[in-house]
Amino acid sequence: MTTDSYQTIVIGAGSGGMTVAIGMAGLGRKVALVEGGHIGGDCTNVGCVPSKTLIHLANAGHVRDAAAALAEVRAKRDSLRERETEEVEHMPNLDLIRGWASFSGPNTLSVAGAGGTRRLQGQNIVIATGSRPRELSIPGLPADRSLTNETIFELAATPRHLAVIGAGVIASELAVAFSKLGVQVSMVSTGSRVLSSSLPEASEALAAALEERGIAIYLNTKVERYDESAQTLYLRRSDQPVALDGVDYVLVAVGRTRNLERLQLEQAGVRYDAGGIYTDSYGATGVAGLFAIGDVTRTSVFTHSANAQGRRAVQRIAFPYLPARGPEPLFPSATFADPEVAQVGLLPPEIARRYHPELVRRYRVELKDLDRGYTDGVRHGFIIVDAIRLSGRILGATIVGPRASEMISFFTLAISQGIPLSKIYGLVYPYPTYSNGILKVADAYMRATLPHLRQELAAYLRYRLARPPQPANGAPAKRAAAPAAPVAGNE
Ligand SMILES: Cc1cc2nc3c(=O)[nH]c(=O)nc-3n(C[C@H](O)[C@H](O)[C@H](O)COP(=O)(O)OP(=O)(O)OC[C@H]3O[C@@H](n4cnc5c(N)ncnc54)[C@H](O)[C@@H]3O)c2cc1C
Question: Are 73 and 53 in contact (CB under 8 A)?
């Protein structure tokens, strides 16, 4: 068998892999892009694009039912997939190789495709194989009633009662979309709150909004079995049995499993475990020439982070002499439920580990108290910012409400560029907008700081270098409270 040599081989044509393959080919390098499934990976085919199209159609409110919406989702998804496939098929310097890749050495791969097996050799190999839905076996549940994000967008029927197992980003987004499309939705999770990786305040706000919408939420609850004849899903909540009647489909969204097994990483000497491949901040695995990016690594679970990692890997491979730009950039998170939930920077457990609680203040602004929140009838929504006293350096921000996913970039910029709340106070924001809430946060900071400068300076000097106390029960200590913000009229 002959071996084809490339400057760069990319395994996986998803969000991360396409970034690297197109980036390197655009720089004139000879690239092979190996893909065993559809071009576009999860995002285009079974993730961001179909889910956001469904959410859009559910919000627009003009589709007949979920089945009609899903047909439109598939049509849009297919057309994007075709466009992306055409792009990589015709890209100069890039060979698209169809098949599943596995390592036979640190810089050699076997690719098993329809036409047989090929051997490839690369100066650099970038692993971008993504992840897949974690499996959950439910006794009694027939395969055709069991859905994941890989199958739900293929449904030809409108579910009557959709049980969503899981309460994370994917579960919340799809629960809301199907509920808006007229489907009865129940959410079941062994966890104690929805969106458990976000602030508890965000979980509460989202749960309240889901329940107002008619979505039944069962937390601290396990799925036991499904009875096909009665179409009943049996649950157990804190030792109490619960029966969900009339469930015709079950969506399992209980987390992700990284696509590692097929790769035979032992042959390459790459360090990994179930949490993903270990890399440095440029995706380097520690094995010369081998990189990993996206969901298959330990730090990325989004398309935007896979893309950012891909761009950094291109920089490292193509321009190794350029100085390294430190750690990975901040990866904001966004959940496109209703309300949206977006977050960037540190969350309270990490803040508590790093800073003395007296050094950090929390500012919270309710979106309903903004004039735009009032005009739009916003019920659930806020901006919460944790910042260092006196300096106003922002540590973390969470936004719940309309346009949260757009507004969060403001805080990504502020945190990554060290722009303090005092500077944010000096900006002028269009009226009436949700981003006026950012100004309100800066107002609250000014109110907590300027009239008490001596006290704030003393606290800053005292606690700036103080070690955070380690509470015996592991719970984070309380932060210094900011004075309550008065509600303004026109901002
Ligand atoms: C329902 C859902 C909604 C989502 N919504 C959003 C969103 O709104 N915003 C956002 O930022 N993120 C979202 N995500 C997450 C996003 O889809 C992923 O983070 C992103 O696709 C990861 O990109 P990747 O390049 O790491 O992997 P992928 O895009 O999954 O691509 C990996 C590719 O590698 C291929 N592959 C795997 N193993 C091999 C092998 N051995 N040989 C050859 N090919 C192989 C796969 O077939 C696949 O095409 C969503 C995910 C889901 C499931």
Answer: yes
